[in-house]
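re: that chain from earlier
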Amino acid sequence: YLPYEMVHPRSMVVDNAGNLYVANVCSVLKVPVFGPATVIAGSLVECGSTDGAAPDARFNQLSGLAIDSNGTIFVSDTLNHTIRKISTTGVVTTVAGTLGSAGVIPGVLPGGLNQPVGMAIDATGALYTTSENAVLKIVLP
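^ sequence. v structure.
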């Protein structure tokens, strides 16, 4: 279990095995059915924007989480204006939005987002997010 002063939960989702995932300010935590919570991506103490291996990844104000049927986790990285993906192999990539560019720009990905927050995935695998007073559908390749 993590020290309470280091955890500021924003959103949560449960996978098919019953594990709970929590969007913290700058990290994603996994709370397994049995066992302690662990940081699976990002940092409890350092924010930013870095893709790559999950422990080295950095986020800035995570606020939404979704998980697809394969176990891939998507997070709304609100202050970076991006949607990030955490693969089942532990690699973080940016899938929508452009770092440092605030504004909804529809069309070909990465497009543009403005402080995305809420997230959901439908039965076809399409990802939805809220951004700039709108609900946007993101069709992933």
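The chain has no helices and twelve strands.
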